[in-house]
Amino acid sequence: MPVEQTIPKYKIATRSSKRTSRSILNNLDWVTVLIYFLLVGLGWMNIYAVVYSPDNVVNIFSFDINSGKQLLWIGTSVILITMLLAVDYKIYEHLAYPIYGFIILLLLVTLAIANPIAGSRSWLDLGGGARLQPAELAKFATALAASKFLSNVNLRQQNMKDQMILAFITLLPPAIIILQNETGSALVFGAFILAYFREGMSPLILIIGASAAAIFILTLLVPKLYLIIAIIVLMGIAIWMDYRLMRRVKSMIALLLLIIGMIFSVDYFINDVLQPHQQNRIKALISPEADPLGYGWNVTQSKIAIGSGGFWGKGFLDGTQTKFDFVPEQSTDFIFCTIGEEHGWIGSTVLIALFLLLMTRIVNIAERQKSVFARTYGYCVASIIFFHFLVNIGMTIGLAPVVGIPLPFFSYGGSSLWSFTILLYILLAMDANRAQDLSR
Amino acid sequence: MNYLENRKYVIQAIFIVVGVVFALRLFYIQVVDSSYKQAAETNAIKTVIQYPFRGLIYDRDGRLLVENTPVYDLMVVPKETKQLDTLRLTKLLGLPLEDVRERLKKARAYSYVKPSIFYQKLTTEDFAHIQDNLIDFPGFYINARTARGYSHTSLSHALGYIAEISPKQLEDTSNYQGYRPGDYIGKSGIELEYEKYLMGQRGVKHIMVNVRGIEKGSFKDGAYDTLSVAGENLYSTIDLELQAYGELLMNGAKGSIVAIEPATGEVLAYVSAPFYDPNLFTGKDYGKNYMNLLKDVDKTMFNRPIMADQNPPGSIFKLVQALIALEDGVINPNTTYACNKSLVNCHQHPSPLNLFGAVQHSCNPWFFQAYRALINKGKSPNTFMDTALGLKSWRDQVLTFGFGQKLGIDLPGEKKGIIASPELYNRVYGENRWKYSTIYSLSIGQGELGVTPLQMANFMAIVANRGYYVTPHIIRSVGDNGKPLKEYQEKHYTSVSAEHYEPIIEGMASVVSSGTGRKASLAKVGIEVCGKTGTAQNPQGPDHAVFVAFAPKVNPKIAIAVYVEHGKWGGQSAAPIAGLMIEKYLTDTVTIKEQEKWVLSRKYLDIKSK
């Protein structure tokens, strides 16, 4: 790479700009673009299905209803896409830190001046009824900054200081977002672990994280004593299978004590650290039937809506549960219920397949990038989409706690659609120009 | 750093695993577990039952016996009650505070989101008053439906009543398919017997509602909706005027009157005394009234005409004995027996008598001897076995008169009665351990005999028809253009041929013209009544009085049985009632006013027993 850098940088880019734009369109990953428009279009139809009322039919394009407004967001997203593809792709790498800095500033300003909406101070009023949620934009900004940091040739992964800086870049935005009382959006930043894992982070962190999550959930479901006995038995089996572990008996005991400590601190964490509404979301995940009209309402109604869809679904606009407001936040966070109810298992599975296709495709795109920056950024995109996919669909079918984050490209809302569009098309822009990277 | 490229597969594998887990979970909740579909329906689809009008019941002249009147239930949806002013509600309904709280608790326990009845059967005045105030009570509304109404106070036992279906009936889905909690169902009488015609067909409307219960149009454009179909009207054989007159005559007494049109088996009057006002069972105090009547010492709820089968018929049964004896040829109209009081007690009258005189004077020794001839025909040299054979043959013939079995009237709860059988005596005395001297009281209608008033009236219809009966029934046809029910067209012939009835009828005519039944005589208005008195001993007190009759003698139009519990003398209490009923029915007026006065005074209850 250092050799390649001696080639004049801007030679190709300064050729006829017409040719460049044609080559961008030629090299654009049209499969991803197609999936993107499929998701956006299906989302739009489902948003219409949510607001559709048989006794008062409103045109799908009407700006009085969400589907009309979403169409506006989709239109502006197309303009946004054109702009993202038109500008020099290198600008993202060059401006990664300034963009990050600007967004951090925006988050802080929002925190300072925003009027609370439902307890959350994350919305910036733009005047004229338009609002912006900077937390949404923080995702791609952080992805850019982290990728930029990881692409530094002088970076040494094992360097404690570098690790600390990376952690700081990743955790600063969610820290501010938590202060804005948007814990759900903050959790998304945990997804970066997947990207870092690809870039060389020890798998141990991934395993420890997954184990900790597993123990946390098991503690809620299984009596503590049984859990501890089970872990001791597991450790015993491990030692029996590989007696060399006996030499590490001290660390084994330390690990055991750590796990037991964690098991007993779960109660403290839930009762004293989490806010009441967060406690309820945990309770709703474990036993929504305990209070179906209270904290269990969302999960119960969401499952009823999806479950009533059956194999083939009730048909477009024929759902009753989502349409008649039984499911809350149905066009944003619980949009998946509409799919489940009206299009059944077939529709839900097709949507899941579309997302899997998109995410694996993005991973493949990331892998074919020639620069560390572009590759890392690609993994960040895949990870963020995956986290939303995991939590959003998971919560509607009772596999994840209710966290108010949207389904990418699908849910109603301008900030969310823009943020994911920017996130994805920066990657596609870099991907379309990757041949130039090679030749430089 | 090449090995890191393989981590791509780890990450993609994580994606795919999550996707597959989601698809499997979705398959479970969408396809495998059907409970969510039901939950969705209860959520968003409100089924509104459209109650059909229950069929009406008319009497034989087209007068309404049973009609429908609107009633109003106060309903509550607990979820929608907001800032409920319980105190004002107590004032509005006139209920104590605890009661209101209790009712709210009950409603909540039933369902938080579904409507339940808060207060049943408001009167029309209460309804208007409460309706005006309901605006301040969100979650409460009035549900109008119809209840039974009666513009008269008669015929309660036969009409029966309707009430909410019981939990037990609801569980019995094979017999009560399609009923829902809170539905009204016939519980007794005609209402029970003809439930399937009267109930009609409920309609169901499926309405989509949103989460706040606001209606959002019909579900699938009403594809699953059904219209309600009104129940069929019933046309009864009862003459309401005659019925009411019968109840007037029996008011204050205990007993029964059953009047039948002989040729058709149509029941003209069906009195069970004491009786109650059928309106007692329609209002909001239904439960209280019902319990009061159940506890009542006079057994008001006891449906005497078809259920009082423990009482011996007394002397009226002598007619049956004579008919069978004639048929068997053991006597003829000229057979004479002396009034031998050493055989069985009797009263003063000329002796010896032929059949005509025996019926007229109800001579006990005459029937003792005639019955002995009937039972001991000498078919076996062994007197014990001969008696058993004779009794068996006699019993078979008695059954052809409809005794000892359910006649099959279209009312629930009919009893069979008892007719002595060889098996019965074998059980009591042992085989070949009993003979005529053991069973002779049967000859005069005492002993092991139990006959319902309906069976007595039916017997009179048989005599009037000279040998057959049509099953007594209280409903002639179902539906506005309905044909007469075909199960009530068949003639049931007795074992006794027609010619043997004439001498009996002559005797019965003389009973009324110059014998014990003179108080039933309508000679004054030119109607020849044929009758027979009876007295039935009973352990509870004074004798029960019986009178059976039909009239006119030629081409009879009415057959009647009157049973007055503890009426002492058939001729004194039951006979005048029968006479009055016959005149009322045949001429629509009552001329034998002295008889009416006598009956209404209840003076017959004061006559000294024999």
UniProtKB/TrEMBL annotation, chain A:
The chain crosses the membrane at residues 28-51, 71-87, 99-118, 164-197, 204-221, 227-245, 252-270, 345-364, 376-403, 409-430. It is a multi-pass membrane protein. The keyword Chaperone does not apply. Its main location: membrane. Keywords: Cell shape, Membrane, Transmembrane, Transmembrane helix. It comes from the Bacteria. It is found in: Membrane. NCBIfam families: RodA_shape. This is Cell wall polymerase. It comes from Pontibacter populi. The gene is rodA.
TrEMBL record, chain B:
Keywords: Carboxypeptidase, Cell inner membrane, Cell membrane, Cell shape, Cell wall biogenesis/degradation, Hydrolase, Membrane, Peptidoglycan synthesis, Protease, Transmembrane, Transmembrane helix. This is Penicillin-binding protein 2. The chain crosses the membrane at residues 9-28. It is found in: Cell membrane; Membrane. Signal peptide: none annotated. It is a single-pass membrane protein. GO terms for molecular function: serine-type D-Ala-D-Ala carboxypeptidase activity. The gene is mrdA. The lineage of its organism: Bacteria, Pseudomonadati, Bacteroidota, Cytophagia, Cytophagales. It comes from Pontibacter populi. Residues 51-213 form the Penicillin-binding protein dimerisation domain. It is an enzyme of class 3 (hydrolase).
